[in-house]
Specification:
It comes from Metaclostridioides mangenotii. This protein is mainly alpha-helical and 230 residues long. It is built from 9 helices and 3 strands. Strands 1-3-2 form a 3-stranded antiparallel β-sheet. A hairpin with a 3-residue loop joins β2 and β3.
């Protein structure tokens, strides 16, 4: 029933913490989808634990706004409205363009090689056109953006972006699962990476901004199409 990550029972931390982190990551990576109901018994059975740590984890997830408790209905993965999604992307566009600008200034030979390898793997995976790889594609997309922020080497910027990334993870798969979109993202990555490698601050900033704006446009159009179908 649930597409959960494998629980590491060999971890020596308290079981409630292990269950919480497992469920949290499952939500952020899209394995547990927005709007999906979280039933304690099924979750406990799927993870091979009792209901108590699952119940405690759900309460903590509610405090992080990743889960919402509905009266007489139970716990559900928080579902973001279109307005909330666009607000997140609006902030992310500013932060990502700044990170790209800084990365273009600070990159070194090791950074350049890392960016090339990530871009190559991302393109190869998207060209396969296998929808079963979409979670992997999404994770690799995250890896690339984390790499750019690492090169930018600005702790305040990275800290500010962490909250935005976590909010976006919940709806990332909704547009990453579109094959044409993933191909376009791969092409956008190549242009962004080239600008950073070339040390072109203006182009890096521009492509980073366009990259997020294109995602925003896709989500708006997709939401409009879904509304028209109802």
């Amino acid at each position: 029933m649930y597409n959960l990550l494998k629980l590491d029972l060999h971890n020596y931390r308290p079981l409630r913490d292990v269950v919480f982190e497992n469920l949290r990551e499952s939500i952020l990576t899209g394995r547990l989808k927005p709007g999906q109901r979280l039933m304690e018994i099924q979750l406990a059975e799927g993870l091979g634990v009792s209901r108590t740590p699952v119940r405690e984890a759900i309460r903590k997830l509610e405090l992080e706004d990743l889960v919402v408790m509905l009266p007489r209905k139970g716990a559900y993965v928080t579902n973001m409205s279109l307005k909330e999604i666009l607000d997140v992307l609006e902030v992310r566009a500013t932060l990502e363009s700044l990170a790209a600008k800084l990365a273009a200034k600070k990159r070194n030979d090791i950074d350049i090689e890392n960016l090339k390898q990530i871009s190559k793997r991302f393109k190869k995976l998207t060209e396969k056109g296998n929808k079963n790889d979409m979670v992997t594609i999404s994770e690799m997309d995250i890896e690339l953006h984390h790499c750019i922020f690492s090169i930018a080497n600005n702790k305040s910027l990275t800290k500010s972006t962490k909250i935005i990334w976590e909010k976006e993870y919940k709806f990332r798969l909704s547009y990453m699962s579109d094959y044409d979109m993933s191909l376009r993202i791969a092409d956008e990555h190549e242009k962004l990476i080239k600008a950073i490698i070339d040390g072109d601050v203006t182009e890096a900033e521009k492509y980073a901004l366009n990259h997020i704006k294109n995602s925003e446009e896709y989500i708006i159009n997709n939401a409009t199409l879904k509304s028209a179908e109802l």
